[in-house]
Amino acid sequence: MTVHLRWSGDTESLEGNVEAVVATLRRARSVFALTGAGVSVESGVPDFRSAVGLWARYDPFEYATLSNFLASPAKSWEMFRELAAAIEGITPNPAHRALAELESCGRLAAIVTQNIDGLHQAAGSRRVLEIHGEGTRLHCLHCGHFEPFQSAHRRPGPVPACPRCRAALKPNVVLFEEPVRHLEAVSALVRRSDVVLVAGTSARVAPASQIPSEVVARGGSILEFNLEITDLTREGLGSQGALVEGPVGRTLPWIVDRFARGAQP
Ligand code: ZN
Quick one: average pLDDT of 163-186? Predict the structure, then answer.
């Protein structure tokens, strides 16, 4: 049976169902989280795929492919500077902190995130697999040098160059034509986990799209925290699954607080 909870501010009426979600977390052998843009929206990071997002203004196949970057780094850097501006000065919100707390309670093995904003680590999460890379560092594809992505790099001007070999630096994000990262570690998590906590993503984009269904196919369940029903919900969340509908900055702390309270002696 799938439990369906909707955040309304009046949480008293949902008591029984809250317990069912907490019980799934408590009984699970191993839990990991899969997160996406919805987790960072409340920190002010726009969803790049939304109508006003980056991809609506910069055709990714013109600006965000590896071959375009190699052929014309200056053009790709127009988009990189906007991407950097979108995540400059942002701070974690209660959804990031709730997941960090779940890890520190020993209940979350890892976070697999599609986000590149570094906010899970900023909130204190330690095991974070950034499958689309990290927007907080620059990388030299030529010699392997890394450095922080700083305000100075964001100002219009020449393409930032590697201090060691002078090649064009690239944000350490996964561009189109580049492989998604940490897939082996993600498969190991899927194999040993019986619950995946999906937050702020409808998981429509591969490979994230295969992760929750794989957990269910192996007999596990999905605890879904999203603003509304998604294809994940419609395709089935598993025998102990639940949808917690509402803003993840409210719903995640709600459930994690309850879990943490019950976990104390
Ligand atoms: Zn270099």
Answer: 96
Residue 95 three-state SS: helix
How many angstroms separate the alpha carbon of residue 139 from the centre of ligand 1?
Answer: 8
Cα of 149 from ligand 1 centre, angstroms = 15
pTM: 0.94
CATH for 1-45+92-132+181-265?
3.40.50.1220
Phi, psi of 5 (to 5 degrees): -115, 140
User: Measured in angstroms, how far is the CA atom of residue 144 from the centroid of ligand 1?
Assistant: 6
Task: Name the class of domain 46-89+133-173.
Answer: alpha beta
Name the residues annotated as catalytic.
132
- Give the pLDDT band of residue 257 (cuts 50, 70, 90): very high
Query: What spacing in Å lies between the alpha carbon of 68 and ligand 1's midpoint?
Result: 19
- Ligand 1 ion: nearby residues, β-carbon < 5 Å: 140, 142-143, 145, 162, 164-165, 167
Domain ranges of the chain: 1-45+92-132+181-265, 46-89+133-173
pLDDT in tens, 176-219: 999 999 999 999 999 999 999 999 999 888 888 899 999 999 99
CA distance 11 to 48: 32
Structure tokens at 150: 């700083």
pLDDT of residue 51: 66
**In this structure, what is the dihedral angle of CA atoms 132, 135, 140, 141, given to the nearest 10 degrees?**
20
Query: For residue 108, what pLDDT is reported?
Result: 98
